Amino acid sequence: MEIVVCVKQVPDTTEVKIDPVTNTLIRQGVPSIVNPFDKNAVEAAIQLKEKHGGKVTVISMGPPQAKDALKECIAMGADEAILVSDRAFGGADTLATSYTLAAAIRKMGRVDMIICGKQAIDGDTAQVGPEMAEHLDIAQVTCVSKIDVAGQIVRLEREHDEGYEVIETQLPVLLTVLRSINEPRYPTVKGTMKSNRTVIPVWTADDMNVQPQYLGLKGSPTQVRRIFSPPQRVQGELIQADTAREAAIMLVKKLSEAKLV
Amino acid sequence: MAVKISQEECIGCSSCVSACPFGAINMEADKACISEACTVCGACVDTCPVGAIVKEVEEQVVAMDKNDYKDVWVFIEQVNGQIKNVSHELLGEGRKLADAMGQKLAGVIIGDSVESLAKDVFASGADLVYVVEGPEFKYYTTDGYTNVFTDLINNYKPSVILMGATNDGRDLGPRVACRVKTGLTADCTNLGIDDQTGLVAWTRPAFGGNIMATILCPEHRPQMGTVRPSVFKRPEQDFSRTGEIIPVSSKVNVKDIRTKLIEIIKVCTASCNLEETEIIVSGGRGMCKPENFALIEELANVLGGAVGASRAAVDAGWKPHMHQVGQTGKTVGPRLYFACGISGAIQHMAGMSSSDIVIAINKDADAPIFKAANYGIVGDVMEILPALIEEFKKNRQVC
Questions:
Q1: Theoretical Cys-Cys bridge with B281: which of A28, A49, B159, B338, CB 3.0 to 4.6 Å?
Q2: Given pLDDT bands bounded at 50, 70 and 90, which one contains residue A87?
Q3: How far apart are CA B367 and CA B382, in angstroms?
Q4: Cis check: omega of the bond before A230, within 30 degrees of 0
Q5: What whole-number distance in Å separates Cα of residue A125 and Cα of residue A130?
């Protein structure tokens, strides 16, 4: 089975702090990581390969340093990696990004399954996966927590409001996966050595069958109008009491008086 | 389009450097320079004290007659003939947008025998309801619903489309937006009209909730967005309102639906219905071990509420993902939100800050959750929770 996994290098948004004086992001010292959901996608792909054979190729669109993220995926056990990188791709929104990645996947030839993380932790849009499926005109199943493949048939569990939907479809298909689908493995020493040796090809706009008006900022229907700090909630009162019981009694009293319970 | 800094005018004060959310401005030889990381968001423009930064707008190449596109649409999500809360919330917001734009508000209902839901949609503010019915639409499928929706867009040309940022809405939205080649803003928490352009201003948290971004879709139609459940209040319904029902026959070929729903496995009871409930009791890392979540469940049970969990608790495997509250989980806006043993990472706050009243219990007095709490108790959750459960039980008996 030919599996492609799309990964994104993201700033670790859990490490981002806000400067209390200027109310802006402190980016210094924030590490770049493989988007956590994408590691689950890589793990899912490797598990499928171990069971059914085939090849796992990881692909990323980003600046040259995104190669580090791809190397980490190779160290985990992916076979090959491709970086899609060009100044012309800069400023792309989800429509332009998915157009570009879909063109890269088309260039790869036969692909049976594309796996993406549910969303990236910097943009949090969860849109690039479904939009790629649309560009490639294949089926999609999002929020997947279990994958079973038998021949051309794929059986999936998809998270829903109160549980799971069991969905059946055929290859080729694009899936987006949840964190709960698996526990991503750590890179092995052998894998890390392999990743150090791997030369990652870089595909630019000229290497793919793309039209310039659909790339980067030009190909992006959405524009950022402004950016600001999130509104803060106002701090209320701390309940001071000597014991847990007293604190509980005071809280329940306050909530009842305010007719909240 | 580009943001440029005039090297002649720049006084080298570097105030724009820290204003850039993407770290794209550096000081070189006492002048500010913009690097490749620039996303043209324009956040730096207003910070320059001498007006040396300008955002240039390029002529758009796309030619589309935007005046052909009218009305605000809301995708009405329904499960077993029951309209989801988020769809009502969006009808309330959609009504405001439609009034501001001087246009009509329409609901789009897709399903099997669903026309009877129209009166509920009118009561929440719609002027029109498009109804597409068929047994193949009984359950959501990406292909079936996308085909129906794009046909509707091509025939009736709406200006704005709102969908709930639910699992299905986030599956359908990008597929539809991509097919009609327009922009989609995900997970919005605020909607408005941009003063200068009259466009819909879509505001959403990004960067893990650390920043808010307002997005426009200037040259493409329809302008589309998914909106997080529970951030807007449900409008007061008026069942004397009526409107026009437009039945549309589907041209979808069942063969074109490439996924098949085999079964629905319900693993959750009312306790994980976070988006429709009035009271949520959430637990985090401070609960220490999965067994201790029994206290969270008991308190939720006593109060008739649902059970939430922070990302830390979900990642530790203490609760399934469908209980997760936060940027990568659910957005909730209950009347009462209890945060127990939750420190209050910004990612968590992004999912619960529209709660009316927040009660925080944490042993760390410096935990950021207290800054967002209406009532806070500094103490051990393992002592406070049993006491609270007992007091609420007593209180209930009195009432």
A1: B338
A2: very high
A3: 17
A4: no
A5: 11
Which chain A positions have a beta carbon within 8 Å of B259's beta carbon?
Answer: 139, 141, 167-169
**CA B142 to each of CA A111, B19, B158, B329: distance values in angstroms, whole numbers, following the listed order:** 21, 40, 21, 21
Distance CA B38, CA B214 (A): 16
Residues of A in contact with B178 (CB under 8 A): 95, 98, 130-131, 134-135
Least Cα distance to B185 among A127, A213, A216 occurs for A127
Tell me, what's the pLDDT at B336? 95
Give the Cα-Cα-Cα angle A236, A242, A244 (nearest 5 degrees): 80
Min Cα separation B242/chain A (Å): 31
Give the residue-averaged pLDDT of B288-305. Answer: 94
Q: Are B374 and A157 in contact (CB < 8 Å)?
A: no
B383: closest chain A residue by CA: A244
DSSP-based three-state secondary structure for B315: helix
Please give the Cα distance from B287 to B285 (Å, whole number).
5
The answer to whether B310 and B348 are in contact (CB under 8 A) is: yes
CB B340 within 8 A of CB B386: no
Which residues of chain B make contact with A180, given a CB cutoff of 8 A? 314, 320-321
pLDDT of residue A126: 96
- The residue of chain A nearest to residue B396, with distances taken between CA atoms, is A261
Answer whether B322 sits within 8 Å of A251, measured CB to CB.
Answer: no
Chain A interface test: which of B202, B230, B377, B395 (most A C-beta within 10 Å): B377
Q: How confident is the model at residue B398 (pLDDT cuts 50, 70, 90)?
A: low
**CB within 8 A of B321, min separation 6: which ones?**
A145, A159, A178, A179, A180, B314, B329
Q: Do A139 and B320 touch (CB under 8 A)?
A: no
Instruction: Please tell me if residue B219 touches chain A, with a CB cutoff of 8 Å.
Output: yes
Helices (H), chain B: 15-19, 85-101, 118-123, 142-156, 167-179, 293-303, 311-315, 346-352, 381-398
Tokens of A181: 């689908």
Q: Which of B66, B64, B62, B42 is nearest to B54 (CA)?
A: B42
The answer for A 150-179 residues in CB contact with B (under 8 A) is 155, 157-170, 173, 178-179
Angle, CA B354 vertex, CA B270 and CA B392 arms, to 5°: 50
Round to whole Å and give the CA distance between B91 and B85: 10
Which has more pLDDT, B43 or A51?
Answer: A51
- pTM of this structure: 0.88
- What are the distances in angstroms from CA B21 to CA A16, A62, A96, B4? 11, 18, 21, 16
Partner A contacted by B224 (CB < 8 A)? no
Residues of A (202-221) whose Cβ lies below 8 Å from B: 213, 217-218, 220-221
The verdict on a CB contact (< 8 Å) between A95 and B379 is no
Among A15, A222, A232, A234, pick the best mutation site for testing chain B contact (most B Cβ within 10 A). A222
- In 3D space, the residue among A40, A112, A97, A70 whose CA is nearest the CA of residue A215 turns out to be A97
Residue B395: band (very low, low, confident or very high) from pLDDT cuts 50, 70, 90: confident
In angstroms, the CA A163 to CA A156 distance is 13
For A180, the closest of B219, B272, B320 (CB atoms) is B320
Q: What is the DSSP letter of A166?
A: E
ipTM above 0.90, yes or no: yes
| Closest CA relative to residue A58, chosen from A50, A95, A75 | A75
Of A121, A165, A228, which is closest to B261 when you measure between CB atoms?
A165
